[in-house]
Design brief:
The structure is a single chain. By secondary structure, the protein is α+β, with helices and mostly antiparallel strands. It is 19% helix and 45% strand. The chain has helices at 5-12, 57-65, 78-84, 91-96; strands at residues 17-18, 20-26, 29-35, 39-42, 47-53, 67-72, 100-102, 108-110, 115-127, 130-142, 149-152, 155-158. The strands form three sheets. The protein has a seven-stranded antiparallel sheet with strand order 3-2-6-9-10-5-4. The chain has a three-stranded antiparallel sheet with strand order 1-11-12, with no helix packed on it. It is globular and about 45 Å long. The protein starts with a helix and ends with a strand. It binds flavin mononucleotide (FMN). Flavin mononucleotide binds at residues 19, 31, 33-37, 51-53, 56-58, 81-82, 84-87, 91, 151.
Length: 162
C-alpha cells in the first residue's frame, strides 16, 4: 500500500529545506538546476547527496560531467533559484550573466551564496524516478555574513536562528 500523489506532495511540502544551485560543465556547456534534496551524507569521507529527477536535462549532464558544484542560496537569491528551476531557461546564458568562479572541474560556483563547494561524483543510485548522486566534497567556502534561503509550503523566506 502506498499514499497517493496528492498526499505525498502534501506531506513533503511541510518539510522546510534549504535551496541549492547544482551546476556542472557538460563538455563545455555550462548548466545547473535548483535542488532542495541536497543533504550531508558522510563525515569520513566527506560526502553529500543530491536527488535528481531522471526526466530533467541536468540528470544525464551531471553523470557525463562527473563533477558538480553546489551553491547554497542566500535569502535574497529566491528569484535566481526560480530561474534555475525553469527548464526553458538557457542555463549557459543565465550562468554567463551570474557572477561566479569555476571549480577545477569547470562547474560554476555562484557569488553571493552562504556556502559553495566542489564535488566529484563517486556513486549514483537509482531510486524511483530519481537518481541519488553521491558527491565527495573536494573544497568549499563559507560566508556566514548572509542568511540562508529557506523553502517550505511552496514559499521562500530566510532562516534566522532563534
Ligand atoms: C526550490 C526548488 C527545489 C528543487 N529541488 C529539486 C531537486 O532536489 N531535484 C530535482 O531533480 N529537481 C528539483 N527542482 C526542480 C528543478 O530545478 C527543475 O526541474 C529544473 O528545471 C531542472 O533543470 P533542467 O531542466 O535544466 O535540467 C527544484 C525546484 C525548486 C524551485
Amino acid at each position: 500500500m502506498v499514499v497517493d500523489g496528492d498526499t505525498f506532495r502534501a506531506l513533503m511540502r511541510q518539510f522546510p529545506a534549504g535551496v541549492t544551485i547544482v551546476t556542472f560543465d557538460d563538455k563545455g556547456t555550462l548548466g545547473g538546476l535548483a535542488v532542495s534534496s541536497f543533504c550531508s551524507l558522510s563525515m569520513e569521507p566527506p560526502l553529500v547527496l543530491v536527488c535528481i529527477d531522471r526526466e530533467v536535462a541536468s540528470h544525464d549532464a551531471i553523470a557525463r560531467a562527473g563533477t558538480f558544484g553546489v551553491s547554497v542560496c542566500a535569502a535574497d537569491q529566491w528569484q535566481l533559484a526560480q530561474d534555475f528551476a525553469n527548464p526553458k531557461q538557457d542555463k549557459q546564458a543565465l550562468l554567463e550573466a551570474t557572477p561566479h568562479s569555476l571549480t577545477d572541474g569547470g562547474a560554476p560556483l555562484l557569488d553571493g551564496c552562504v556556502a559553495t563547494m566542489a564535488c566529484s561524483v563517486v556513486a549514483a543510485h537509482e531510486a524511483g524516478d530519481h537518481t541519488i548522486y553521491v558527491g565527495q566534497v573536494e573544497s568549499g567556502v563559507v560566508d556566514e555574513s548572509r542568511e540562508p534561503l529557506a523553502y517550505c509550503r511552496s514559499g521562500s523566506g530566510s532562516f534566522t536562528p532563534a
